[in-house]
Amino acid sequence: MKWLTRLFSKLPHSIIRYLGRPFGFLWFDLFRFRRSIVLNNLKRAFPDWSHSQRVRVGRRSVYHMTENFFEFFMFPNINSEWIKNHVQFEGEEELKAAYQLDKGVLLLSLHLGNGDLMANVIASLKYPVFIITKFFKSKWLNDFWFSVRGAQGVKYIEPHGEKAPFAILKALKTKAVVAFVLDQHMGRPFGVRNTFFGHPVGTAYGLALFYLKTKAPVVLIYNFIDQQGKYHIVSRRIEGLEVFLQNTESDREQTLVRLTQLFTDRIEEVVRQYPEQWMWVHRRWKWKGP
């Protein structure tokens, strides 16, 4: 493992990403793994696009995922010099202002760009970062994966476990930033029905629940890579959430639904802006029932 990180510390960033392209070709163009899911998702989201346009964006999305994988081994080497050369942080002042409120920060994010790279950059800037994410069943694989994935000090909370709510509240009380990634399917009992690109989906309501409980500021954060290979991290405070606190005692469930829809709408806006860097291989539209 260490020899890989040492090797990747000597390679240019462009070469590291280039290593993933053959695997993207194998995935999307040769073996066509989940290709139909990618194209059907794109057709659902962008019905006015031509088939060739959907293929082009779907291919780039898969290639982007395989390119991201090789960046995993360079996380231990992220430092201030690397950030200066490869990252532009847009709106850091909004994240900093929210952080300085001393309530902790709730981050709304999605699978766009390279989220793990973004988390490690933010952690290296001395923000205590927690991400809510699934764990592996294998302890060995779990220890290996998360030791590298969180090389700059990122910590992880397993969702839906008995200790998860307490871990999230504890992190917020220590003034940490806690990331909720809300662009994947979540059915009942942890998800609520809302719409994404005009179609029904199930989305986890955890971010809405913890906002109502803690009133911690919510910041939308995402990243994308430009044509020159530079990463842009974008953070924007979500304003006006206080209106959702009205009548929560009598209609708390609907408040959770409305908040979750607002968060989903923000995610949709970002995906529409950078569709080629979002994870179209996921079965997002799986909601069953009314």
Keywords:
290 residues; alpha/beta; 12 helices; 17% strand; globular
Structural account:
By secondary structure, the protein is of the alpha/beta class. It has a domain at 78-277. 46% of the residues lie in helices and 17% in strands. It has helices at residues 2-10, 13-18, 21-30, 35-45, 51-71, 80-86, 92-99, 115-124, 139-149, 164-173, 206-214, 252-273, and strands spanning 87-90, 105-109, 129-132, 155-157, 177-181, 191-196, 199-204, 218-225, 231-237. It has a 7-stranded mixed sheet, sandwiched between helices.
Quick structural summary:
With 290 residues, the protein is of the alpha/beta class. The chain has helices spanning 2-10, 13-18, 21-30, 35-45, 51-71, 80-86, 92-99, 115-124, 139-149, 164-173, 206-214, 252-273, and strands spanning 87-90, 105-109, 129-132, 155-157, 177-181, 191-196, 199-204, 218-225, 231-237.
